[in-house]
Design goal:
Family: Belongs to the mTERF family.
Strand content: under 5%
Helix content: 55-70%
Number of strands: 2
Order of helices and strands: HEHHEHHHHHHHHHHHHHHHHHHHH
Radius of gyration: 35 Å
InterPro entries: MTERF, MTERF_sf
Pfam families: mTERF
CATH superfamily of the largest domain: Transcription termination factor 3, mitochondrial
Distance between the termini: 57 Å
CATH class of the largest domain: Mainly Alpha
Structural class: mainly alpha
CATH architecture of the largest domain: Alpha Horseshoe
Largest sheet: 2 strands, antiparallel
Keywords: Transcription, Transcription regulation, Transcription termination, Transit peptide
GO molecular function: nucleic acid binding
Shape: elongated
CATH topology of the largest domain: Transcription termination factor 3, mitochondrial
Number of domains: 3
Number of helices: 23
Strand order of the largest sheet: 1-2
């Protein structure tokens, strides 16, 4: 559980760098005025003749700058200047521009900044936008980034944005993915790359197995806590949720309303109790498909003679069946029912047959049994189910190794069939039988 919550560390970083600084001119002027008003008056006894001559005026040389400082602005000018910039540069709607500029203004106030250089803001914001465009971001994506995290306009490109953006792009994130992530993880570009971003993403990738799964978790983490609370409110113990955290990965990253509707559908329509061992698997299966696709898959079963009560029975036993594609379901039904002659009742009692790949497991083992049965080496009534559910090592030990002398090429036949299509396996098997 602790590992899965690693992305929440994105919410625990104190961003301490102040982007906008007040000028010192006002402070100096104020100090000078204070000094002049508080200085003690000159007494009449002090003679001008005895007073030391004043020091010669100090001459200074102006330090050259690369750009001329622009005017400084403060509330409420800051908000309107930022809003105008968003409208002119990124085509923000006026209302959204005002809302976004207000958020940036509130952040500036929280940092104690009283005055901001207009030129500095415009130059830095333009650099950020130009950098994002060079990385392939389109205008709608940039708007999404800025709307979700206005402070990105204040980030320094070379020191901040560039290394973090390069890391995400090299990892495999698309510009669209990054825009989606920032809309959820609003402060991601404000955190340290090596201290927070890289360790958290690498840890997630280790657990989740792929960049795609990392994205799914990062985009859905905002709903995680709400969904856990929702399941607890339904009476499901936190221990049960913790044990099935990987099964629930998709469900817990859905919108709470979606999860609530899915739970109701699982219990009311499909009859899977929340206390059932398959409840979480059922929720996960239905979270992945909409009702239209679910009905379409049901019609595939019905075309092979299944009725709705059969489907409910199957779903209760193996909810995963409905995560399979329609093509996968059709291929398995065609093989089990048309080729092997299994009826609905047999498949329901051996429903785990749907869990195994035809190409990688079922067909290769089926062909091995056909060869062994044809040569009288095993019982002709040996069920395929028994061989399919075996582990790889056990299958080799029981059905390959003992018969390598009687069938010298048996192991090669088995290995060469793994992963090839069922049609290719049928053709190869028929050809080998003819040649024999």
């Amino acid at each position: 559980m602790a590992t899965m919550l690693l992305p929440i560390s994105f919410f625990r970083c104190n961003f301490q760098r102040q982007i906008f600084y007040p000028t010192s001119a006002t402070a100096i002027t104020t100090t000078a005025k204070t000094a002049s008003t508080t200085a003690p008056p000159t007494t009449a006894k002090t003679a001008s003749a005895t007073a030391p001559p004043p020091p010669p005026p100090r001459t200074t040389t102006a330090i050259p700058t690369t750009r001329k400082k622009g005017p400084h602005f403060s509330e409420p000018d800051y908000r309107s200047v930022v809003a105008d910039f968003l409208v002119d540069s990124l085509e923000f709607p006026k209302k959204e521009a005002l809302s976004t500029s207000t958020e940036l203004t509130k952040w500036r106030q929280s940092r104690g900044v009283t005055k901001v250089c207009a030129t500095d803001f415009h130059i830095n914001a333009e650099l950020v936008i130009r950098f994002l465009e060079q990385k392939g971001f389109e205008n709608p994506q940039i708007r999404k980034l800025v709307s979700a995290s206005p402070r990105i306009l204040t980030c320094k490109v070379e020191a901040n944005l560039e290394p973090k953006m390069n890391y995400l792009l090299e990892l495999g994130f698309s510009t669209s993915d990054i825009a989606d992530v920032v809309s959820v993880q609003k402060r991601i570009f404000l955190y340290g790359l090596d201290s927070i971003i890289r360790p958290a993403i690498e840890a997630l990738r280790t657990v989740m197995g792929s960049v795609e799964n990392v994205l799914r978790v990062m985009n859905g983490i905002r709903y995680f806590v709400q969904n856990v609370s929702l399941l607890q409110a339904l009476g499901i113990p936190i221990e049960s949720i913790r044990k099935r955290i990987f099964v629930l990965c998709t469900a817990l990253t859905q919108k709470p309303e979606t999860l609530k509707d899915t739970v109701a559908l699982v219990e009311a329509k499909w009859g899977v109790s929340r206390w059932s061992n398959n409840f979480f698997y059922a929720v996960d299966s239905l979270c992945c498909i909409n009702e239209e696709k679910l009905d379409s898959k049901c019609r595939v079963f019905e075309s092979f003679g299944w009725d709705r009560s059969d489907l409910v029975h199957l779903f209760r036993r193996v909810p995963y069946c409905f995560k399979l594609s329609e093509g996968n379901i059709k291929a398995k039904l065609r093989f089990y029912m048309n080729e092997l002659g299994y009826d609905v009742g047999y498949i329901l009692t051996h429903s785990s047959l749907f869990l195994y790949s035809l190409e990688k497991r079922v067909w290769p083992r089926h062909l091995v049994l056909l060869i062994l049965k044809d040569r009288g080496l095993v019982d002709e009534n040996l069920p395929l189910f028994k061989a399919v559910v075996m582990t790889e090592s056990k299958f080799l030990k029981q059905y390959i190794q003992p018969f390598e002398e009687a069938v010298p090429n048996l192991h090669d036949i088995y290995v060469n069939r793994i992963g090839s299509s069922a049609q290719q396996q049928i053709k190869s098997f028929i050809k080998s039988e003819i040649e024999a």
